[in-house]
Amino acid sequence: MAEAQKGWWLGWGASSVSLALSLVSALVLFSVLLVTNGKNPLDTYASIFGSTLGNGFGFSEIFVKMIPILFTAIAVALPARLGLVNVGGEGQLQLGALVAAAAALAAGTGTPSWVGIPITLVAGMVGGALWALVPAILRAKGWLNETISTLLLNYVAIRVVDYFVFGPLRDPSTSNVPQTTKFADGFLWPAFAGRIHLGIVFALVALVLFAVVINRTRWGYEIRAAGSNPLAARRHGLPVTAYVLLVLCAGGAIAGLAGTGEIMAIQGRLRPGFSPSYGYLGFLVAWLAGHRPLRILIMGFLVALIATGGDSLQIDQGLPSSTVSILMALILFMVLADAWRPDRLQDRIQAWLSAKKRGSA
Amino acid sequence: MTGGFLESWLGGAVLTSTPIFYAALGETIVEKAGLINLGVEGTMLVGASVSFAVASSTGSVAAGLLGGMVAGGLFNLLLGPLVIGWRANQLASGLALMFFGMGLSAFYGKPFVGSSLDGLRSFPVPWLSSLPFIGSILFKQDLLVYLMIPAAAGVWYLLSRTAWGLHLRAVGEDRLVAYAAGSRTGLLRHQALFLGGILAGVAGAHLSLAIAHTWTEGLTAGRGFIAVSLVIFAAWSPLRILPGALLFGGTLALQIQLQARGAQVSPFLLDMLPYLVTLVVLVLLRNSSRGRMPEGLKEVFESPREGK
Amino acid sequence: MMHMIDQAPAGTILLETRGLSKYFGSLKANDGIDLTVRAGEIHAVLGENGAGKSTLMKLLYGYYQPTSGEISVGGVPVAIDSPRRGRALGIGMVFQSFTLIPAFQVWENVALFFDRREADRRSLVDKIAGLSQSYGLGIDSLALVRDLPMGDRQKVEIVKILAAGARILIFDEPTSVLAPHEAENLFRVFDRLRGEGYAVLFITHKMAEVLRVADRITVLRRGRISAALTRAEADRDLLVKLLVGDLSPDWSDAGPQRASSARGGAHALEFIGVSCKTDDGRPGLQGVSFSVQPGEILGVAAVSGNGQEYLGDLILGVRPASEGSIFLAGNNLDSAPPAEVLHRGVACLPEDPLRMGAISGMTVRENLILGRQVSYWKAGGWSPDRKKLETDAEAALMTAFVQSPPSLDVRAGNLSGGNLQRMVIARELTRDPAFMISYYLTRGLDLSNAQAARELLLSHVEGGMAVLFVSEDLDELFALCDRLLVLHAGRPAGTFEPATTTPQEVGLLMTGAADG
Prior knowledge:
The complex is a heterotrimer of chains A (361), B (308) and C (516). Chain A is mostly helical. Chain A has a single domain (56-342), classed as ABC transporter involved in vitamin B12 uptake, BtuC (Orthogonal Bundle), CATH 1.10.3470. Chain A is 76% helix and 1% strand. Chain A has helices spanning 2-35, 41-53, 56-81, 89-107, 113-140, 146-166, 199-216, 218-228, 230-235, 240-267, 278-288, 293-317, 323-336, 342-360; strands at 191-193, 196-197. Chain A has a two-stranded antiparallel ribbon with strand order 1-2. In chain A, a hairpin with a 2-residue loop joins strand 1 and strand 2. The longest helix of chain A has 34 residues, at 2-35. By secondary structure, chain B is mainly alpha-helical. Chain B has a single domain (7-112, 133-301), classed as ABC transporter involved in vitamin B12 uptake, BtuC, CATH 1.10.3470. Chain B has helices at 3-32, 40-58, 61-77, 79-85, 90-109, 134-138, 143-146, 148-161, 163-173, 175-180, 185-212, 223-233, 238-260, 267-284, 286-292, 295-301. In chain B, helix 2 (40-58) crosses helix 11 and helix 4 (79-85) packs antiparallel against helix 11. Chain B is globular. In chain C, helix 3 crosses helix 4 and helix 3 packs across helix 5. Chain C has 516 residues and is an alpha/beta fold. The longest helix of chain C is centred in the middle third of the chain and has 16 residues, at 180-195. Chain C has helices at residues 53-61, 83-88, 106-112, 121-134, 150-163, 180-195, 207-213, 236-244, 309-316, 338-343, 353-356, 364-367, 386-400, 417-430, 447-462, 474-480, 503-510; strands spanning 13-24, 27-38, 41-46, 68-73, 76-78, 91-94, 168-172, 199-204, 216-221, 224-230, 269-277, 283-292, 297-301, 323-328, 331-332, 346-349, 377-378, 383-384, 435-439, 466-471, 483-488, 491-496. In chain C, the strands form five sheets. Chain C has a six-stranded mixed β-sheet, sandwiched between helices. The radius of gyration of chain C is 25 Å and the shape is globular. Chain C folds into two domains: 13-248, Rossmann fold, CATH 3.40.50; 269-510, Rossmann fold (3-Layer(aba) Sandwich), CATH 3.40.50.300. Chain C is 32% helix and 25% strand. The chains are: A mainly alpha (361), B mainly alpha (308), C alpha/beta (516).
């Protein structure tokens, strides 16, 4: 038993070192890019990390960004355990926001928070789940791969939201600005530190639930089995098709909460373009994390940090904020490539340890 | 519908379909080799931004075009070590490439945002362009439009009639058999990525130089994914790409025409059309597509993979 | 391309090995092999599984490099460092799993292996037609390989190597995928090749074939040459002795039939006029009817791909029956889903346990509860009962592994073929099923483990389990089964009791050769 435990620590240690090395190599490559364009990488990093870690408000902003990112990451990770690639977080969060907005506007003023907030939760999840339903059905029936369908629907979702915001849900009092009417207080999610809001509680709950379900429950076992070998799973009675529908819609629902949180806590109304690619950032985080809950938390923080830092790049360095997508893509490349070979690293460390043992024996 | 409407629409359809066509043609080569590159969007963006930047700076459209092609080829090549050497998940890697392309093109394109350029101009084909109706649709376009059919024929010939193409397709069907036959599977796939990238670069260049005549971030707006869908729709045949591209180009162009004519349809609903049409077409043609998918692709699309 | 050995008269030594050895670490796969291959001769290499036949072939073909010893072609020592080099020397190889691309046409498959640049379509098509004619192969260059039956695909492989100029043709277990009449065709092709001065080298474990067609026989045993004989010097008993040594409980020397333990009463399983379609919509099974009693073993004798693969799918409910009904213990299955079928006491050892019966990414422990996982969670699925899981898993392994069971923590994908097979057997039988369909029970198992598996199965059968026993091994079928169902091209070709028929007769029926 001791042997097995030691192996566990070793594995964990090796993959952490490997991850750190991946991050460092990505930073190095990014620096090269900056240097070849006449930008001082140190200044850039100072801007990114300084505005976030070195600054009270900046630090809290990391968590503000982290909330929707955690939701969208789970939305990718859960289906991924079943072997599905859900790229539709962006669209699902848009529809979640839309339905939540519609519900809030329909229910009107005078709704107390203990009613209003649950309404937004339910509506947001319904919106997101519905947007994932069509890709889920198409995949379940074996008609179309969900990667393509969710991707295409992302582009459709933005236009759907635009349609409503410019049309039926438009705020008549601000006719030159496309946005919905302000939501009544009863629906807004309260903030408590800086702009960090109630969503962080929901996000962490969702993450813990994801962890428990996937690792401890029977459904998690069945999902993991089906994700690894759907043919064998089916032959042994596992309801693979039902799980396809379930995980995609559940993922959509969770992504819907990302959108809901943004409009109910940060924006106060639904505006077009309220999401700076949170859906895709969640995708990035999930893959960086290997779809594992604890890692989603860590990588979520990291990506949120970089994304927040990126905002200040425009002001400080005159770089487009999408510059940070270069850094994030580089990190993802390194991690996907398993570039620092955690298993080889583990073997090397193990060999070094046993050599030491023999030496001292 | 008046004749004028049809002419403008169809002429616009041909123009609009061109970038999608080239990107899909390039992706066909890649997929025949058993790889799927969801990052075509990124490659197109790189092609678009680089070609615009070079054309603006040098004043030469040809240089711009060339720059876009080279940049596209090299950029696409990045997928190679990732999915071939390190065996990373192809779908996720492609999307990573897309982000990379989005970021890179925004970064390098920043100085050129909003500036306009004459770019690639259309020129009429003598005599043919004076034909009624089809004259203005087909024969008053730019060079890249005219080259679409030769390009499709060229890629078809390359894939089905040359030894290179034979080995490439073998790699896409069954890498082990190809290896046993002495094919250099890694080299071939990288070559496919390079070629595919050149064509995607051309696609991007056309978009910025011939259609938009400018550069903005995210210019391609999902056309890369439409191109990937188009490859499936065309059942991986270079010859079927053109009709498919025209279909999608037609949908895109329709929206522009209807808006220009003040049609009483919400611009947003029209905007959705290309993507919805793509979705519907893919579903309707699912059975015929499946039969022609290169075997090597099936494992990417259909089965979940181990670990991670 | 060098043809050092072109047009050599019959009897000339084309290829020779001296002291050829290949070690994998401490494993001596081939040890000091002296082999002589002559033009105009059919040379059989006979050996059991694991005797080193494949390794030897791969050395000759250039896949492996020898650890020591030498190979000479046409009298000249050579180093065959790659398959390409092997081909250049005139050595061609036909593997058990064909190196063909189903989506390509025949000529494209041939072109792929052509080293010449001028492999143009027209000349290749003509060449293929010519070869096809000369050797009685009968293939159409423009046909898609995926539309060809196994026997024809093998012929494409032969054309490939002939077109590339091979003079030494090596075949690895060529009849393993063929029906008996297709095998006969192949032997006729061998005859013609021999007549034209080619050297045919084929490896096999089937003595009957060796005695039917070989001119020279080399017997391999545990990596070494046990004997090198001419056909005249060989007979069955001698070969058996050389193959496995004395006193082997050779299953093919089967003793008397096992006593039937079939019970009366309701059928454990019944198929009535069952038909189904393949994934491409073609007919799979057509009008199959049979029944199995509790405590009975009904053998299914069929060549690979003749419909028996659908039996498991139909019973489990993963494939619908287009016609007919299936009854389990008297109740109509009526396309019940797998979960329900399993719940009703059905177990399955599938044709491909790795792909169909195990989750390679999960541990042995997790694999052992597949199909009955519900009972290992409490609180409706929220909380795992790890203790029960542990004890049950260990107990299950004990039933199928007499010694050295794999660790429960090993990933199923890392298990050897034999261990995986036994793990699946353990899992399925631990459920104490009322009915089991078993495909190729002893595949991948060596002699003693195969014996153990059969005994485990029999112990359950004696306890009342009914078995549908699918196997390609006629000897095993005859020794184990109470009755035999023969399938050919998806249709039933007869039901027999082993005592009233012979393997030859069944073999003929399996291939449809008995009709007309």
